[in-house]
Specification:
single chain, three-stranded antiparallel beta sheet, 6 helices, 3 strands, binds fe (ii) ion
């Protein structure tokens, strides 16, 4: 099987330049390419001599979650900008869940910003756990380290430096997070949330 890089219908963003987004989209396409490359290479090596190539195959399998989650997390990321910024209204179930978990929408935003301050490269990920009926806002290292098994992703904030260093200095990460949150079309996280809330 082969994955194809998605295209995103992105509006002009506030505080994130077209150059920044284009550089980032090219990186996303690299992840898609490498997912396909790993899957194809494992298949070839197994067909040639699975036993003799076991060590290499094992290492490729270890590498796959980095490339796969790199691909998928960027898809979560870019689609959040499609159709332009929208804030959830008072009737939003996502806003109600955020109010319950974080006290208010502003409390939710403050929490996302706090987790975004984690040192290192990775992601802030907001999940919804249907079993626990709760939102969780956590830090994921690289793309795959610390993901909460099976929980639907509601919001994904890329905190790798490549996500902002065309437009911001490393010390300006907070400004990037502000810009990111300004541009989110919350209809997208809301739709993800409604698919899983019971
Ligand atoms: Fe990224």
């Amino acid at each position: 099987m082969n994955y194809t890089a998605r295209t995103f219908d992105l509006p002009e963003l506030k505080g994130l330049s077209k150059k920044q987004i284009d550089v980032h989209l090219a990186l996303y396409e690299g992840y898609v390419k490498h997912v396909n490359l790993i899957l194809d290479t494992i298949k070839e090596l197994r067909e040639k001599d699975a036993e003799k190539n076991a060590f290499v195959i094992n290492e490729l399998r270890r590498r796959l979650p980095f490339e796969f989650d790199g691909m998928r997390m960027h898809e979560y990321y870019f689609e959040q900008f499609e159709k332009g910024a929208e804030i959830p209204d008072d009737k939003s179930p996502l806003r109600a869940a955020a109010d319950e978990r974080y006290g208010s929408w502003d409390g939710f935003m403050a929490h996302v910003k706090e987790v975004a301050g984690t040192r290192g490269i990775g992601w802030v990920v907001v999940y919804y756990d249907p079993a626990g009926r709760a939102m969780h806002t956590t830090w994921v290292g690289d793309h795959e380290l610390g993901q909460l098994a099976g929980l639907p992703i509601i919001l994904a904030v890329d905190l790798w430096e490549h996500a902002y260093m065309v437009d911001y200095l490393p010390a300006e990460k907070k400004s990037y997070v502000e810009a990111f949150l300004t541009n989110v079309n919350w209809d997208v996280p809301e739709k993800r949330f409604l698919e899983h809330v019971t």
